[in-house]
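Exercise 7. Given the encoded structure of a 183-residue chain, write a plausible sequence.
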């Protein structure tokens, strides 16, 4: 698994360099999206699927906002001429995503075999065995979400709420006040 982290780190670094060095704003935004995709894949390998899902949601909303802002500022026209470097980088990125996909499908356990059962003393056993006694909650789900993982749940809800509000503010058609209007 260490080699996969290095491959993902290399992928993230290449995308970051391209995002900083490119003169095209839309290409830069797409590279930022690739960085977020790589980070979410790293979270999956670290067995944090809830954080990976939150990263993907925030990344998609962030890309919507950035692409909306980029398109209004940068008029990008696609021509028949392609740069050699851009083509090579695109092929390498697609190949890296393919390799990550193969690696992810190799690590998925067979159907019916839970992933957390493979770990030594997983947290899920503690939640199920001692959850109701330690928390006094009405059911196990409430004890996990509101007691054991309360800060994590609060953080995820805050990130999602902030992302949705930010996307709504930026993507609305008309502002409340036009420039130059007084109350």
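Solution.
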């Amino acid at each position: 698994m260490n080699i996969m982290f290095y491959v993902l780190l290399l992928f993230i670094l290449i995308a970051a360099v391209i995002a900083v060095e490119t003169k095209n704003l839309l290409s830069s935004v797409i590279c930022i999206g690739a960085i977020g995709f790589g980070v979410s894949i790293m979270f999956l390998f670290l067995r944090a699927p809830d954080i990976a899902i939150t990263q993907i949601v925030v990344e998609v909303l962030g890309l919507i906002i950035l692409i909306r802002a980029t398109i209004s500022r940068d008029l990008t026209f696609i021509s028949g001429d392609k740069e050699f470097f851009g083509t090579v980088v695109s092929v390498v990125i697609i190949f890296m995503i393919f390799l990550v996909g193969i690696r992810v499908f190799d690590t998925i356990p067979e159907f019916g075999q839970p992933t957390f059962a493979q770990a030594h003393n997983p947290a899920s056993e503690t939640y199920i065995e001692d959850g109701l006694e330690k928390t006094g909650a009405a059911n196990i789900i409430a004890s996990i979400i509101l007691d054991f993982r309360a800060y994590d749940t609060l953080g995820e809800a805050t990130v999602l709420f902030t992302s949705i509000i930010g996307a709504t503010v930026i993507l609305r058609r008309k502002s409340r006040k036009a420039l130059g209007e007084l109350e």
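Remark. The CA atoms of residues 12 and 35 lie 5 Å apart. Students should compare their own answers with the one above.
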